[in-house]
Write a structure and sequence with these properties.
Helix content is 37%, strand content 22%. The protein is of the alpha/beta class and 284 residues long. The protein has two domains: 8-105 and 246-280, Rossmann fold (3-Layer(aba) Sandwich), CATH 3.40.50.10860; 109-243, Rossmann fold (3-Layer(aba) Sandwich). The strands form two sheets. It has a six-stranded mixed sheet with strand order 2-1-3-5-6-4, with helices on both faces. It has a six-stranded parallel sheet with strand order 9-8-7-10-11-12, with helices on both faces. The chain is globular, with a radius of gyration of 19 Å. It starts with 7 loop residues before the first strand and ends in a 10-residue tail after the last helix.
């Protein structure tokens, strides 16, 4: 929807959202086009989310971002959604239509934009290891497999959970799930993606140098303080490391486009966010 000069009412729903960078990111996007936006943080859990979302829509809300723990609830609440949301079974972006809310998932697009455009990483033909099997993984797997890697391997402490996720996406490309005891048998990978929340507990996944192919890259969906443990591990191993700040801004740009049909430039926004103290940032 092209809002012209009218006020665009936006929000982020989740718990916690008090330090979310999303309002700042979208204000910077809006400035690029001279748009007037009002972007709220709406702290809410799953029980209150449907009522709060209804109220936001009745008050003129145009669109919203959804973060933990509401992404699956947002998908369940909506009936107008595309393939990415259906596969992920989670939504991170809602767009207000005359018929109600349409749901989208921009996480995969944000990741691929950061990999390709910001870091020049092409995963076609590569073996990719994804660490984790939660909602963050579900949000990116469709886009990863669409990029034609040779294979995607999921590793997770809960093997059954990883296997279930692999089965959901097996029609999209070559994908396999393994437990940590069996990871060594998988050989090395050109790209390793950490999609766990271990960094928030000041931990890193137990990756070993032998799991990295020559010139491999470790991409961490975390950023700010949550990225420090894995960054330090990669430095110790002598491996290339990228945090997920570019993905955060990239997925926000996709959301902004869905709301306004205007595609913002992201490089300066990423740099501005990177200069923000870690204490003022969170995963969304």
């Amino acid at each position: 929807m092209d809002q012209g000069t009218a006020l665009i009412r936006l929000a982020i729903f989740g718990q916690p959202v008090t330090t979310s960078l999303s309002p700042r990111i979208h204000r910077m996007f809006a400035t690029q086009f001279g748009l007037d936006i009002d972007y709220q943080r709406i702290e809410t859990g799953p029980a209150d989310f449907p009522e709060r979302l209804l109220k936001f829509g009745l008050e003129g809300g145009h669109g919203c971002n959804i973060t933990v723990p509401l992404k699956r609830v947002a998908w369940q609440l909506t009936t107008d959604h595309g393939t990415a949301v259906s596969l992920a079974e989670a939504a991170n972006t809602l767009v207000r239509l005359e018929s109600g809310w349409a749901s989208h998932n921009t996480d995969g697009a944000g990741l691929m934009t950061d990999l390709y455009d910001n870091h020049g990483i092409n995963i076609e033909g590569q073996r990719v290891l994804v660490v984790g099997a939660g909602g963050a993984v579900a949000g990116i797997l469709g886009s990863l497999l669409a990029a034609n890697p040779k294979q995607v391997v999921l590793v997770n402490r809960n093997l059954a959970r990883a296997q279930s996720l692999a089965m959901r996406f097996n029609a999209c490309g070559e994908i396999e799930a393994v437990g940590w005891p069996d990871l060594d048998a998988q050989g090395s990978f050109g790209l390793i993606i950490n999609a766990t929340s271990l960094g928030h507990q000041q931990q890193a996944p137990p990756l070993q140098a032998r799991q990295f192919a020559d010139n491999a890259v470790c991409y961490d969906l975390n950023y700010a303080t949550a990225s420090h443990p894995l960054r330090q591990l990669c430095e110790h191993l002598g491996k290339n490391y990228i945090d997920g700040l570019g993905m955060l801004v990239g997925q926000a740009a996709e959301s902004f486009y869905l709301w306004t049909r205007k595609r913002p430039a992201t490089a300066a926004v990423i740099e501005a966010c990177r200069s923000t103290p870690d204490s003022a940032r969170d995963p969304k």
